[in-house]
Design goal:
Blueprint: E1 6-9, E2 12-15, E3 21-26, E4 31-37, H1 41-60, H2 63-79, H3 81-92, H4 96-120, E5 124-127, E6 130-136, E7 139-143, H5 149-163, E8 166-170, H6 176-188, E9 196-198, H7 203-212, E10 218-222, H8 225-237, E11 241-245, E12 251-254, H9 260-272, E13 284-288, H10 292-304, H11 316-331, E14 335-338, E15 354-357, H12 364-367, E16 374-380, H13 383-390, E17 395-396, E18 398-402, H14 406-413, E19 420-423, E20 437-438, E21 441-442, H15 447-452, E22 455-461
Parallel strand pairs: 7-8, 7-10, 8-9, 10-11, 12-13, 12-18, 13-16, 15-16, 18-19
Antiparallel strand pairs: 1-2, 3-4, 5-6, 6-22, 11-21, 14-15, 17-20
């Protein structure tokens, strides 16, 4: 697989400051498929300086022209969607059909949504005797994860471009090839030199340098809550804005009136999607005590169908982490009804689709984000008990509610401490704000709310 041996800075591929590199490994067969530069703090500084130099002209570019560049970016990504899917499959291990339907298609839709928003957004408005200006916040340091490598990049870079910001991107070291492909697309779309810059590298080196750099005005980070806390502390010391999309332990609440078979089957599919490596996955299924046994049986049967349909986890480190959680669940008394810690294949970083029953709210597997194909099923006594369990973690990213009547589900969802709730299997909406309550993050991504994160306001009084 083709990989650049340089960093994309100021509109060109340039050598990194050192010969250090990062090996890219295919999680399905454990073979090295490429090597990319490990950018240093000096490389980050060079990229930030390029972004600062490009910022004034890009910020002054009319929104209609910024929209045109975003539309061009959408079209380039659409033309290369097969290559995108193949690249994600190679470095993340996602099955090709899922890479085509989600990893490639969703970012194209999101890029298109920001082309439309850039053209239509009111960057100036009248408020009484004032004119309120919505201006770009400046240079953005975007630090993205490996689990949805292109979507997470587009969800940050597209609104930043629409707002008139310049960007330095530090992608996850596990999936840098998708980021390189995106840089090629940005170049082909005609985004001016320096407006977008890419530095591949390790989090403790390049990521930290980007978060700490005085030339960065906003740090947008998606990843673990632990790392998000450190970035927030660094940014806070410099009174720098952050947008943090962090962990989740989302509850799938199945109310007694719901279609149980549909709710359970969709819930299991949600957890197994992307091999469970989804921050918003509904990893806690809450079922009324009278229907609990039936739900457990349905979930175990459904999970068994995913045995040869899900891909590996991204790395040996991640596989071992998930296995550790499964072993912890057994040790704490949860009942294993599907899957387990044993590897289902001789090669590749695979974990079997796993379902636990008899999980109590205080168990580790009910409180901590596992980030693998592991579902915990909890019983509740009544709606107040279900709400207590649903809200009983430090996270509040996403969730789901099922009921025979939509109004019943909505009434429960309004009481949940979480940023996004799907009602009876509601579809993904790329224009709806995404982000969490509590320790699931600060700020929102996608749609107009995502664009607002990259803008600051100025008022002129007349």
């Amino acid at each position: 697989m083709k990989a650049h041996d340089g960093l994309y800075i100021d509109g060109a591929w340039r050598p990194a400051g050192s010969a250090d590199g990062i090996e890219v490994v295919n999680p399905a067969d454990e073979q090295v498929i490429a090597r990319v530069p490990a950018g240093s703090a000096l490389d980050v500084d060079t990229a930030v300086r390029a972004a600062r130099a490009a910022l004034p002209a890009w910020a002054a570019t009319p929104p209609a022209e910024r929209a045109a560049r975003l539309a061009a970016l959408r079209d380039v990504l659409a033309a290369r969607k097969d290559e995108i899917a193949e690249t994600v499959t190679a470095e993340l291990g996602s099955p090709l059909p899922f890479s085509q339907a989600v990893h490639a298609a969703v970012p194209i839709a999101v890029a298109g949504s920001y082309a439309d928003l850039a053209a239509a957004h009111p960057f100036e408005e009248k408020v009484g005797n004032s004119t309120v200006l919505h201006e770009p916040i400046g240079v953005v340091g975007a630090i993205t994860p490996w689990n949805y490598p292109l979507h997470q990049i587009v969800a940050k870079v597209a609104p930043a471009l629409a707002a008139g910001c310049a960007i330095v991107l530090k992608p996850a070291e596990d999936t840098p090839l998708t980021a390189q492909l995106f840089a090629e697309a940005v170049h082909e779309a005609g985004v001016p030199a320096g407006v977008f810059n890419l530095v591949t590298g390790l989090g403790p080196v390049a990521g930290r340098a980007l978060a700490e750099h005085p030339g960065v005005d906003l740090v947008s980070f998606t990843g673990s809550t632990a790392v998000g806390r450190r970035i927030g502390a660094v940014a806070g010391a410099a009174v720098k804005k952050v947008a943090l999309e962090l962990g989740g332990k989302s509850a799938n609440v199945i109310l007694p009136s719901a279609d149980l078979a549909r709710a359970v089957n969709v819930g299991v599919a949600n957890v197994m999607s992307n091999s469970g490596q989804t921050c918003s996955a509904w990893t806690r299924m809450l079922v009324h005590r009278d229907r609990y046994a039936e739900a457990v049986e349905l979930a175990a049967t459904a999970a068994a169908k995913y045995g040869d349909r899900i891909g590996p986890l991204v790395s040996a480190r991640q596989r071992d982490r998930v296995r550790g959680y499964i072993e912890k669940g057994v040790a704490e008394g949860a009942l294993l009804v599907a899957g387990g810690p044993e590897s289902p294949r001789e090669r590749g970083w695979f974990v079997s689709p796993t379902v636990f029953a008899d999980v109590t709210p205080d168990m580790t597997i009910a409180q901590e984000e596992i980030f693998g194909p592991v579902l915990s099923i909890l019983r509740y006594e009544d709606e107040d008990d279900a709400l207590r369990i649903a809200n009983g973690t430090v996270y509040g990213l996403a969730g789901a509610v099922w009921a025979a009547e939509e109004a019943e589900a909505v009434a429960f969802a309004r009481r949940m401490d979480t940023g996004q709730v799907d009602i009876n299997g509601g579809r993904f909406n790329p224009l709806a704000p995404f982000g969490g309550y509590k320790q699931s993050g600060v700020g929102r991504e996608l749609g107009a709310h995502g664009l607002a994160e990259y803008l600051q306001t100025k008022s002129l009084q007349f």
